[in-house]
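HUMAN: Now follow token order:
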Amino acid sequence: MEKKSLLAETLKKHFGFDSFKGNQEAIMNSLLDGHDTFVLMPTGGGKSLCYQLPSLIMEGTAIIISPLIALMKNQVDAMRNFSEDDGIAHFLNSSLNKAAIDKVKQDILDGKTKMLYVAPESLTKEEYIEFLKSVKISFYAVDEAHCISEWGHDFRPEYRRIRPIINEIGQAQVIALTATATPKVQHDIQKNLGMLDANVFKSSFNRTNLYYEIRPKTANVDRDIIKFIKSMEGKSGIIYCLSRKKVEELAEMLVINGIRALPYHAGMDSATRSANQDAFIYEKVDVIVATIAFGMGIDKPDVRFVIHYDMPKSLEGYYQETGRAGRDGGEGQCITFYSAKDFQKMEKFIQNKPIAEQEIGRQLLLETASYAESSVCRRLSLLHYFGEEYSQDNCGNCDNCLAPKKKVEARDELASVLEAVKALKEKFKPDYVIDVLLGKSTSDVKSYHHDELEVFGIENNSDERFLNSVIRQAIIGGYLERDIENYGVIKITEKGQKFLDKPQTFKVVEDIEFVDNDENEVVKSGAGCAADPELYAILKDLRKKIAKKVGLPPYVIFQDPSLEAMATTYPVTIDELANIAGVGVGKARRYGQEFVEVIKRHVEENEIDRPEDLVVRTVANKSNIKIAIIHAIDHKVPLDEIARSKDIEFSELLDEIEIIVNSGTKININYFINEILDKDQQDEIYDYFKESESGDLKEAYSELGDEYTEEEIRMMRIKFLSEMGY
């Protein structure tokens, strides 16, 4: 029988499809012809079929190397549904007992098993290597192959050992598959697997049905998420968080607000994790709140939204996770909440890693931050990152294209950038090039004597953010390129050289400015953030009146973000007011009565139908760390010792204490402050906050920073708020 008709017949018989998608047939023919094959295909493109179907045709057993137990189980179950014999597919991993392992081995020896899924860790075990030496191997499939590369978003050191183990077990062709790989990662995969001569099949990364949006992460992010989910009632969605703690907290908060949700993370026991995953797949719940451990290989085509509570650490991770939406070609909304402060925290986390990993981590973070803050079409940015050209000016399905920003002329700036890259002999990264252009005499610039170059300081009147935007859009436009072997280093292209010879117009979109303030907000403060500007103005006047009566600065009563939340959720009882961020029970009882009366009157006079979905019910604060901090302070334990015992930075401890104070609990840290500041120093900072209109920390640093450290100013602000506010 001809190969083509055999493939088509097997496809129809085992999978029930009449035709192949995209490159599937060509990929399978490459494998059947004995060639190493590299497959770059976005989520939902049908990667699994590319090795499943050939394994049914070819003699022997295919070894499929896969990183997650959940993924293996999911695919093995799916394959068994297509066959009368369960022995057709098996997996070998740490979840199996000896009897189950013996059953797997026997089915393979009996010729029943066409696919054997193996974790890379299991593949390294001597007993499995010896067993597989006696087996006829049809081919090796390396799924989620980006795990091989240190530049990939899920780097797994065990993946680096795959090629030597294949050589030990026995030669056969290799098919490597991934849904996300930049040109750099693709090269790493092929080089490490010894398949630089492989047939390469790339499918387009353009998921036209997906809508991409980056939103500023404000103090009201939980409310925004609840409002969005309730607007998608009955539809399935995934929310990704970076920490397990946030997963648990957010899932619980969604449930008490009437949303059917469950958590999922690697810290849960496997039975609970599997049960929660199945509940989502079988639509017993609408939303799963998860770390990145969730979703790889999960075949749920009707996920209608993917929310990132935290921006991922890499664009590959972002693309893969958003790619789990709308796999059936239907609606897929990808909403991400971004805060520049989150990235500063992520940078701290990578500081304990080896230098090489730190460098990679920073570059990946930089790419992601650039994407988040960019005003360029999201689709254009993503596709370019993965080495694919996108010719349209407006994709019509991302926030930047639906609300395009004005373009400005940047011909002179681009010429300066290209001249600087050339003068620096194409050996440096964008941030260094910008330092030279701005005339910054950093230690590196001085040591290389680059402060003596003609280009040094030629853009000293330019804005750093704008130059970043010029470089980023010059890369997308093909004037500059990244060195694939030395990721991050930029070089001039032929097009860039032509521009230098004859400069022409070059217009760029100015990037979005995300500004963090001391409340971890990323948007301007004020009525623009409140749903009801009129009520917001009324509440500000009331706050001013009460502040004058009690002789305190207005911000001590309630801070602006709390007023914004009141003008959005309309709390009309003390209990509802206590649930507003930054209020708490203490402040609600002390100052709240007049506020709820004013809000109630405003609601009645304007016939406002209070949207219940906006009244966010919060989980009672059961945080063990906060209770432990309060107890430790009561026992006068030095703050630096508390931070060490909780394994957190000192600044993070102050974050926690500020939250405690803002929620209405009085804290006395005088015993610690007295050790580091004398009375006159304390009085100076205290008086500053007494006179300050806003209590803004950045203003305080600007005013007092020459004399005092950031930590000293923050501690005195905590002392002031605790003594004067309650």
Observations:
- The longest helix spans residues 584-605.
- The chain has a mean pLDDT of 84.
- Residues 46 and 259 are 32 Å apart (CA to CA).
